[in-house]
Amino acid sequence: MSTPRVSIITPSFNQAKFLHRTIESVLSQDYPDIEYIIIDGGSTDGSLEIIKDFESRLAYWESIPDHGQTDAINKGFAKASGKYLAWLNSDDIYQPGAITEAVTYLENHPDVGMVYGDCTFIDAQDQRIGLFPAAQTDYARLRRGYVHIPQQSSFFRTDLWKKVGPLDPSFYFAMDYDLWVRLAGEAPLVYLPGHLWASFRLHGDAKTIAADDRCWPEMLRVHYREGGHWLSPIVIKYGIRRMVAPLINWRRKRMFDKNH
Q: Domain containing 92 — which CATH number?
């Protein structure tokens, strides 16, 4: 198998508690050509010292104020030189062998634009507390609100990013959904069940817990931008989601709290 460069971006801001583990999970991968870039937004919690500990193994890093996570990811990708791209948030981790498996698949399937594997939920102590409900999706299903893509375990082609990027900085929560819709409009997205590639950390400050109510309105912005009608499955799902959101968030927080 050829070993094209893979560029991994970590946007970081005041996540010193988890940052070392995130960086370690990238740099301990068995893949030989990883370009690792960390874009920190000017953390004041000790993150800078952690980044400096790994400085010699990073392709690039900075720690200056930015306009948030989406801006940081865009800045990182603008500096990337790899054939394949991914981002890993500063509280999540890769599982061993993830990058090798993802690149192997993409190299053997040049028609596929993005590949994604399974992802577990973990707590602050790295203990598994659940499994992300990943499933195969595509452009039509994404437009209906059938997402099921764990961002942490997704890898996509740089040439497609250059066609559809960058991320929309006006999105706080659904910038990944927006990107997947645009990628899926250009090439297939493929899910590989049974391939555990990442872990998604749930903790008290995680965006998934703290701001989930902002996700679906942003998804609807994508829907209408793509020419969607107000009477469509994703709009109906949003209405249902609003009704059951308190239960969903209660279950999610309960899953975190009982393991905290």
A: 3.90.550.10
